[in-house]
Amino acid sequence: MAEPRPYPPSFLDRFMDFVQRGRVPYWLTYLILLIVQVTILHILAWMDGWMPVFTFNPIMAVFPIWLWIPMIVMTYVDSVALDALNSFRPLLKIEDEELNRLRYEFTTMPPRGVFLSGLFWGINYLLLTYLGYQVGYEAYGLDAFLGSVTFIVGLISYLTGSAIYYHSLRQLSLINRTVRTARQLNLFRLDPVYAFSRVTSLIGISWMLMLTLTLLTLPIRLATGLGLAIMAVQILLAIVAFVLPLWFVHRRLESEKLKLVAEHNLRVESTIKLLHETLDNKKLEISAHFNDAMASLAAEREVLSAIPTWPWRAGTLTGFLSAIVLPIIIFLIQFAVEKWLGG
């Protein structure tokens, strides 16, 4: 049966699908395109005399990174999301037709959303250029020709590469919607529950990857106040992206755990009540097993207490937190070096 298509794929999905169908791995194709674009920009800079021939300046890689790396990230996140959906499938109360629809939605962006996202970030780029980028380019020594080339390349990057934000927010919304349709969760079978944490952590890490690459290539002197604010918001959104979509699952797991603990407490109460009855009836041969029963219940209590209610593994959380800290450290080092050299 053909997959249901509630909307046609966006131009970005068509392009990424075309690249995926090629013989060369998609990530390698995008890296080759990135290198080619950076090389062309360097050739233009050499011809313009902005920098000596055969020298390299990382600033030329900023916009190509924001054009091609998001393609790699979005394609990879789509594949991880499909794996997570398949793992989560046993907990879903949906028919196969709805599952096929979900698979399509997890891997295909609506054209309208991509267009509006590009429009928003294009306007944002024009605002950034007006407030500081153009002044920064001139301060960095870019003449009218090279400044115009950089402006056009930057605009294209913002119009297309910025789709990673729309893609990420859409994925998080789909995850939130999907987990809410889950059946009763089993605290002793948590592997399906952990499935979507890989996606949410990967989305947060991808945002931090883009921020880290930006900090490594963009001179800190070109960072405007608005640009720094956007970077700070990226870090905050990455944390929210990791936690918020799975908050509902956490509450469900917490509820299930409280239910099991309440049932356990009733068993403890009934065991103590049974002990009192056996002592009152002088049935000491039954009461002799009381210690064994209470020891078993105590062991059960420890098992229940140790069950986590956050729907991710410890390694997933550690990797995510490391990704959050990395760009902050890089920025502080760059800021300190800039102050030291400037002062």
Number of DSSP strands? 0
User: Which regions have little confidence, pLDDT < 50, spanning 5+ residues?
Assistant: none
Biggest beta-sheet profile: none
Number of helices: 13
Describe the global form: elongated
Mean pLDDT: 82
Name the structural class: mainly alpha
Q: Name the beta content range.
A: under 5%
**How would you spell out the order of helices and strands?**
HHHHHHHHHHHHH
Q: How far apart are the first and last residues' alpha carbons, in Å?
A: 68 Å
Bin the helical content: over 70%
What do you see in this structure?
The structure is a single chain. The chain is mainly α and 343 residues long. It has a domain at 11-246. It contains 13 helices and no strands. α3 (62-88) packs antiparallel against α4 (96-107) and α8 packs parallel to α13. The longest helix has 34 residues, at 247-280. The chain is elongated and about 105 Å long. The model has no long low-confidence stretch (mean pLDDT 82).
What's the quick description here?
By secondary structure, the protein is mainly α. The protein has 13 helices and no strands.
Fold topology:
Elements: H1 11-20, H2 26-48, H3 62-88, H4 96-107, H5 111-139, H6 144-160, H7 163-179, H8 191-217, H9 225-243, H10 247-280, H11 284-287, H12 290-306, H13 314-342
Helix pairs in contact: 2-3, 2-6, 3-4, 3-6, 3-7, 3-8, 5-6, 5-7, 7-8, 8-9, 8-13, 10-12
What tags apply to this protein structure?
mainly alpha, 343 residues
